[in-house]
């Protein structure tokens, strides 16, 4: 099971540029640049957290996290406006003595003249947004979480089956893409094929997506490259999905088969980026319909998610039958007698 993790390496961005932030968030968060200077392409943001520099403006800079995006809301702007011009210049000058990546003003607040003057002198971009501070802080934090989220790239196929994200893994050439294509043909949705980028979002949530280059193209051996979206339509794809079940395809082997739990009572888990994901091993041999089994895996996962576990229900029934047999003096004969009690359907001869 751990073979799928042999060549997997964690990827994490060390920084994003302020220019990238502005381009990506300009329309999304209604950001407007209010300083005249061009944004330095080398100016970097290295922290996913934001900072409101209230204490720094008040003069306490011992614990000033200056390398984060600085967000100024109503409180900070009102404080600056209530200072004398000389004191305001002194406070803002102290703020810009640190290597700040950028400043964002919320609630469409007007920046004090001294702030713009010193920001342009120090070449620090200043932006404004009409969004309230609390709402904008949530939006920008979510964006930064996404950018700085730890990631791994896996050689797999990823399909949304009945709303369940199935990550299909296995050795090269075993048929991952073919299974994914068959699922798409049956009405399910392809997220990614060949290379799947998995990002950790929050605690216990993994999101899988494709690369910007490959997107929803697939390579089918003997056929070549196909465009799933063009062939099957927009309903056959989605851009990202939560990873919920891993299916590992393997060539059937009698020795490996003996070690597998055939009841489903034991849960196999694979740890990706610190998150345990339910894992199912499927051994392939001629005549085994992997596509239908994949659909059943998704449906069974949904049942367990809503509190019904077929393996445990069967175990409970079996245990109850064994207890009845032990209590009955007639032993095995009586158990067989009980087993013959089937449901009666009146006038049913089919």
Task: Reconstruct the topology from this structure.
Elements (H helix, E strand, L loop, with lengths): L9 E2 L4 E2 H8 L6 E2 L10 E2 L4 E2 L2 H4 L11 E4 L1 H8 L3 H11 L7 E3 L7 H10 L3 E3 L4 H16 L2 E11 L2 E7 L5 H10 L3 E12 L5 E4 L7 E4 L3 E4 H5 L7 E3 L2 E7 L2 H6 L8 E5 L2 E10 L5 H16 L4 H18 L4 H8 L11
Helix pairs in contact: 7-10
Compute the gyration radius: what is it?
Answer: 29 Å
CATH architecture of the largest domain: 3-Layer(aba) Sandwich
Into which percent range does the helicity of residues fall?
Answer: 25-40%
Structural class of the helices, strands and pairings? alpha/beta
Strand content: 15-25%
Low-confidence stretches: none
Report the count of strand segments.
Answer: 18
Global geometry = elongated
CATH class of the largest domain: Alpha Beta
- Topology as H/E string? EEHEEEHEHHEHEHEEHEEEEHEEHEEHHH
CATH homologous superfamily designation of the largest domain: P-loop containing nucleotide triphosphate hydrolases
Number of helices: 12
Calculate the mean pLDDT score and round it.
Answer: 86
Question: Mind explaining what this structure looks like?
Answer:
The protein has 350 residues and is α/β, with parallel strands linked by helices. The protein has three domains: 16-147, HprK N-terminal domain-like (Udp-n-acetylmuramoylalanyl-d-glutamate--2,6- Diaminopimelate Ligase, Chain: A, domain 1, 3-Layer(aba) Sandwich), CATH 3.40.1390; 149-305, 3-Layer(aba) Sandwich (Rossmann fold), CATH 3.40.50.300; 309-350, no CATH class. It contains twelve helices and 18 strands. The protein has helices at 18-25, 54-57, 74-81, 85-95, 113-122, 133-148, 176-185, 228-232, 254-259, 290-305, 310-327, 332-339; strands at residues 10-11, 16-17, 32-33, 44-45, 50-51, 69-72, 103-105, 126-128, 151-161, 164-170, 189-200, 206-209, 217-220, 224-227, 240-242, 245-251, 268-272, 275-284. β17 (268-272) and β18 (275-284) form a beta hairpin. The relative contact order is 0.10. The mean pLDDT is 86.
């Amino acid at each position: 099971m751990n073979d799928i993790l042999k060549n997997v390496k964690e990827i994490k961005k060390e920084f994003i540029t302020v220019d990238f932030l502005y381009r990506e968030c300009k329309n999304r968060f209604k950001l407007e640049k209010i300083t005249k200077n061009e944004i330095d392409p080398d100016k970097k943001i290295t922290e996913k957290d934001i900072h409101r520099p209230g204490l720094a403006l008040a003069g306490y800079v011992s614990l000033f996290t200056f390398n984060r995006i600085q967000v100024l809301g109503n409180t900070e702007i009102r404080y600056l406006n209530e200072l004398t011009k000389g004191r305001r210049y002194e406070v803002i000058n102290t703020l810009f003595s640190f290597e700040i990546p950028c400043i964002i003003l919320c609630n469409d607040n007007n920046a004090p003249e001294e702030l713009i003057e010193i920001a342009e002198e120090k070449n620090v971009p200043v932006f404004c947004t009409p969004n309230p501070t609390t709402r904008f802080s949530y939006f920008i934090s979510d964006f930064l979480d996404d950018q700085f989220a730890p990631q791994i790239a896996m050689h797999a196929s990823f399909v949304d089956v009945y709303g369940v994200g199935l990550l299909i893994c296995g050795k090269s050439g075993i048929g991952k893409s073919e299974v994914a294509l068959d699922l798409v043909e049956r009405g399910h949705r392809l997220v990614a094929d060949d290379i799947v980028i998995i990002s950790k979002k929050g605690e216990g949530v993994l999101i899988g997506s494709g690369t910007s280059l490959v997107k929803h193209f697939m390579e089918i051996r003997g056929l070549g490259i196909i465009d799933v979206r063009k062939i099957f339509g927009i309903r056959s794809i989605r851009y990202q999905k939560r990873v919920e079940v891993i299916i590992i395809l393997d060539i059937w082997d009698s020795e490996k088969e003996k070690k597998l739990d055939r009841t489903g009572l034991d849960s196999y888990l694979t740890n990706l980026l610190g998150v345990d994901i339910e894992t199912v091993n499927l051994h392939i041999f001629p005549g085994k319909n992997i596509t239908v089994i994949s659909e059943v895996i998704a449906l069974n996962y949904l049942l367990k998610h809503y509190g019904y576990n077929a393996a445990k229900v069967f175990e409970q029934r079996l245990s109850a039958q064994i207890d009845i047999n032990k209590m009955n003096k007639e032993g095995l004969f009586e158990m067989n007698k009980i087993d013959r009690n089937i449901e009666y359907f009146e006038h049913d001869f089919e």
